[in-house]
Amino acid sequence: MKLYFIPFACSLASRIATEEAGLDAEFVQVLPGHKLPDGGDYRDVSPMGYVPALETRSGITLTEGPAVLQYLADNAADGVLAPALFSEERYRMQLWLNFVSTEVHKAVFAPLFAKDAGEAEKQAALGRVAKPFAVLSKHLESREHLGASFTVADAYLLAVLNWCETAGVDIAAWPVLLGYRTRLRARPSVARAMAAEMPLLKAA
Ligand SMILES: N[C@@H](CCC(=O)N[C@@H](CS)C(=O)NCC(=O)O)C(=O)O
Fold first, then answer.
1. How many domains are there within the chain?
2. How confident is the model at residue 115 (pLDDT cuts 50, 70, 90)?
3. Contact residues of ligand 1, CB 6 A cut-off
4. Is 39 exposed, middle or buried (0-12, 13-18, 19+ CB in 10 A)?
5. pTM listed for this prediction
6. How many A from CA of 173 to the centre of ligand 1?
């Protein structure tokens, strides 16, 4: 498997998943301007130019983080990255993957990082933090993970919460989320994934 990533982007969730499940993957860093280390153009792999993308051993290319994460989960040992297929817990995990993707990643953080977003757009994005963060805080108040155990949805939420400081989102105002992020960062798979990408982030 080949996983395309940018250090500390949402693709970090896929690296966490491979670490958690001990999956074998080659990681290819996408460089500024959609350049690939071999000189190729990443948009030939992922038409939107977005990470993550996954080239599977069977030769298909998957884009879209939630699809990539679920593919990894289905190729890991049972229960390591996702609840059993068709179980209620599995659908709840899909709920959270979609929630993180649409309500948090794209609605809040994407505009805060967008080079072409003006001040008004950024302020509007900051104004959208409270609603999903309140939902997440209430849900995680009495839970260690989004579901009954760690899943790829937690990996995705952690990757997104990592951006708070850089994006100007005050995570300290959300103590439940801060505690959740601190706990997850101490998880060995998460710590290894972050340690692998930190030097690449600093060099970028
Ligand atoms: N819809 C995509 C969005 C992924 C996405 O926004 N990726 C960002 C990093 S978190 C990216 O690749 N940005 C690089 C760019 O815009 O060129 C998904 O869910 O995977």
1. 2
2. very high
3. 6, 9-10, 49-51, 64-65, 101
4. exposed
5. 0.98
6. 26
